[in-house]
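Hi D.,

Good news: the full-assembly prediction came through. Inputs first.
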Amino acid sequence: MTQAPFQDYYPDYMAHCYGCGRLNEYGYQIKSRWEGDESVCFFDPKPYHVAVPGYVYGGLLASLIDCHGTGTAAAAAYRLAGRPMDSEPPLRYLTASLHVEYLKPTPLGVTLEVRGVVKEIKDRKVVIAEQILADRVVTVRGEVVAVQVPDQMLRELMGKE
Amino acid sequence: MTQAPFQDYYPDYMAHCYGCGRLNEYGYQIKSRWEGDESVCFFDPKPYHVAVPGYVYGGLLASLIDCHGTGTAAAAAYRLAGRPMDSEPPLRYLTASLHVEYLKPTPLGVTLEVRGVVKEIKDRKVVIAEQILADRVVTVRGEVVAVQVPDQMLRELMGKE
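Then the structure:
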């Protein structure tokens, strides 16, 4: 089944994020999809995304955990509500906290696979556990606590468009 | 007293990091210095480093916490050893874990101030507590557990130059 990535459903006024916004031409434009109960995102770091030569920059890995987490949070909220992801009002999430464990150096030059599972979802909060794999080896574990964008902020952002 | 930033002392083979390497022309090239017992770094995000319009991207904030943390870890280790930062063998640190709390949205368009203090330093491990301020308001708190680069990895990196 063809499935558009979560991020393609974000309304324009929420699609400027450097990590995941499809309208940010300088950004990473990550794409996340469901694969059963897990969400998955594939990403190819650029040659200059290094910590030391040959290994991926930890800040980029943190960014992947972050944006794949908030994307998964949004998708999970829509799924729980039984609503399509392009329906109004938008359910969008911000990161309240981010935790990343670097288990071993992540090699540069292979496509990275970011996988997420929903640990908790209630009210306006979603907790996502994630891992990053390089060549099928888990190199990073992470957790994101995502909270729904406050209504007041949503209205402000809509007003800016 | 004029004081060169920590990152300017990294040997060339450790100066390619996307976050803090002076030789990474695409990277952030952050600069950290002591200010008494605190380390401080000032950074101006680019206009496209946004999460939503008007607010700084969380992945960039995590990167600042990360690299300012490892830089502070290195500087603290040299200070503890009573050695200048350009002396051999190099004391360089990698991130074992990174924790970031986003307390409130960080406004774009002001110089960010990242401040760090050493919470713990022993053997090959340093823990750094940090905060990011925008217009003197703390918007982010973070913690980095940094570990000294293994000797084997150092030798590999030196061999690549």
